[in-house]
Design a protein that fits this description.
Length: 134
């Protein structure tokens, strides 16, 4: 059902500093920062050749990333994103097998402009999983 790993998301307390670190220290290609109000984050992507790293910074106090950073002030891995061909089919199959979809269960538009869903980390060995339709 799942396809390739699309990205690994890292929550950071300071997006500009993290972008500079990856760009200047590691020599990575770093995208421009983009605010995604629907998800309460500002993001950028780091190209690595075989996948991407998504850096996430809270956008407002209600951001789910703000809570993550309260527990992890230095930041850290937030989620893994896998590609799926049909997000509704994947959602329905996962729910029928007992997996919990976060939120209202309906896909939202993600940072790549494609439908995404998140799966409860307690159902996936403690890892928050994002599914993105390709």
């Amino acid at each position: 059902m799942i396809g390739k790993l699309n990205h690994v998301a890292i929550a950071v307390p300071n997006l500009a500093a993290a972008m500079a670190l990856y760009r200047d220290t590691l020599g990575a290609t770093v995208s421009e920062a983009e605010a995604i109000p629907e998800h309460g984050v500002t993001v950028c992507f780091i190209e690595t050749g075989n996948t991407k790293i998504e850096l996430l910074e809270p956008l407002g106090e209600a951001s789910p990333i703000a809570g993550f950073l309260e527990r992890n002030p230095a930041g850290g891995i937030h989620h893994l994103c896998f590609e799926v061909e049909d997000i509704i089919e994947a959602r329905d199959r996962l729910k029928s097998e007992g997996a919990r979809v976060l939120g209202d269960g309906e896909p939202k538009t993600g940072a790549h402009g494609k439908p995404v869903l998140f799966l409860h980390p307690k159902d996936f060995t403690g890892a928050l999983i994002e599914l993105e339709q390709v």
